[in-house]
TrEMBL record:
One Pfam match: Amidohydro_1
Record's protein name: Cytosine deaminase
Keyword Ribosomal protein: no
Keyword field: Hydrolase
Gene3D superfamilies the UniProt entry points to: Metal-dependent hydrolases, Urease, subunit C, domain 1
Domain annotation Amidohydrolase-related: ranges: 62-422
Superkingdom of this protein's organism: Bacteria
Record bears the keyword Hydrolase: yes
GO MF, one annotated term: hydrolase activity, acting on carbon-nitrogen (but not peptide) bonds
Length: 456
């Protein structure tokens, strides 16, 4: 089932921009990008099209839209509640305390609020890790929000937040069977703007027997898999990646999230099987109890990671902050002030240009959609953003990648296209801002239902 209408047949020609293509055959150029029928038609210098609407790209950077490979969208109306929370405080307040009281409408509002903030800050694809599948209606409401917002979404079907303690950390419950209905009736088309993956708990959050059954189910349905591993001391004890490898379950269809306390050998196992990883660097440096970002250790293992926000209850929902956090933690490694997992000498480093790649093409690879998006390659869908380099905070933009990473924010994002459709132009969202009033009402209702006091 698809809620999209016919493909966007409008033609757009962006002229004279600094193009950061993320395609090694094109590289970074000062030139033009032609969009036709919702796709990148051409990238180069001196392009002309008499039928296209021309957008002036002078003093602007054009790059693929950011791809967030792990965000719990349903929490979009609860953003910025606990920047000083520990992991247990987050679980107790959000998943255990508020999660059971979410109605389908609350999920719809949360997802839509998260999508609109994402688009505003240049995120064109989100992998929605949806552990709010309290009922089929909750699931359908989450998916409907993605169709409504216009973002590209990979919906990762998860487990309920009712009886939350029964679904994690040693759970014997297998993945909800409703994923079969979603696959067969709701998100059957893997070429659509909204597609389906499976968010599985793996042996770290369930048991090896449950993980084996859940993985078999996902592969039977032809779905890619995401899995949280390396979560603080629990991850150290469980060694989920090694157990998967020893059981013959590790595969290239998997994305491993966090990996903070996964060992270097486990990271090499992920690489050897062609699997991918998602680093939620901002959350990992903010939240005590998870461990530190594994970005440099992943590079040492041969994995170029993707990046993710995780939960807006704790960190900002934009990729600029995620990129800066990854870079800040790397500087601690270089200074010898890193966590215990990062004290091996000679860890490889990354720079701002690498971070742009992590946030774009590597995100597409982790989601299994790099044939469609993640780079400005002719033939791919036109998911792109344009960033104003002449804004005060970015001038004089001596190194464009460094300027975007070190100084960029949502206000610098002038244009956002998804599949050639304009979702933000001249720095203004084209639709959806009314949801933020609905989000406040949803938040109030949830706190009241849960018997929790709203912060002063």
């Amino acid at each position: 089932m698809s809620h999209d209408g016919p493909p966007d047949t409008g033609r757009i020609l962006i002229k004279g921009a600094y193009v950061m293509s993320q395609d090694p055959g094109i590289g970074n150029i000062v030139g033009d990008v032609l969009i036709a029928d919702g796709r990148i038609s051409a990238v180069g210098a001196g392009l002309h099209d008499d039928q296209a609407r021309v957008i002036d790209g002078a003093r602007k950077a054009v790059l693929p839209g950011f791809i967030d490979t792990h965000r719990h969208n349903w929490q979009g109306a609860l953003r910025n509640l606990g920047p000083a929370w520990t992991y247990q405080e987050y679980r107790s307040t959000v998943q255990i305390g508020l999660g059971p009281y979410f109605t389908p409408e609350d999920v719809h509002i949360g997802n839509l609020a998260a999508d609109m903030l994402s688009v505003d800050s240049g995120v064109t694809t989100v992998r929605d890790e949806s552990h709010i599948s309290n009922s089929p209606q909750h699931t359908d409401a989450a998916i409907e929000a993605h169709w409504e917002s216009g973002i590209r979404a990979v919906f990762d079907h998860g487990w309920p937040s009712t009886d939350a303690e029964e679904w994690q950390f040693g759970s014997s419950r297998t993945h909800p069977e409703d994923i079969r209905r979603v696959r067969g009736e709701v998100l059957a088309d893997d070429s659509a703007r909204v597609t389906l993956n499976a968010m599985l708990r793996g042996p770290e959050l369930s048991t090896l027997a449950v993980a084996r059954q859940d993985i078999r189910l996902a592969r039977e349905l032809g779905l890619r898999i995401s899995m949280h591993v390396g979560l603080g001391e629990w991850g150290t004890r469980q060694r989920a990646v090694r157990r998967l490898a020893d059981s013959g379950l590790l595969g290239s269809d998997m994305t491993f999230i966090h990996c903070c306390t996964s060992t270097d050998d486990e990271l090499k196992m992920i690489a050897a099987h062609g699997a991918t990883a998602s680093v939620a660097s901002a959350l990992e440096v903010f939240m005590p109890g998870l461990g530190q970002p594994a970005t440099n250790r992943l590079l040492a293992a041969g994995i170029r990671p993707s990046l993710s926000v995780d939960t807006e209850t704790i960190v900002s929902g934009d990729m600029f902050g995620v990129m800066r956090a990854a870079l800040a933690y790397q500087q601690l490694i270089i200074a010898g002030a890193a966590g215990p997992m990062d004290r091996e000498p000679g860890l490889p480093t990354f720079d701002a240009a690498d971070l742009i790649g992590f946030a774009t093409i590597e995100g597409a690879r982790a989601c299994g959609i790099d044939d469609r998006t993640g780079s400005l390659t002719p033939g791919k869908e036109a998911d792109l953003i344009m960033v104003c380099l002449d804004h005060t905070n970015l001038l004089p933009a001596t190194d464009v990648a460094a300027s975007v990473v070190a100084g960029g924010h949502a206000g610098n994002v002038d244009l956002v296209l998804v599949g050639g459709r304009v979702l933000k132009e001249d720095g203004v969202l084209t639709a959806g801002e009314a949801v933020f009033e609905e989000a406040a009402a949803s938040r109030d209702r949830l706190f009241h239902a849960a018997g929790l006091p709203l912060p002063a």
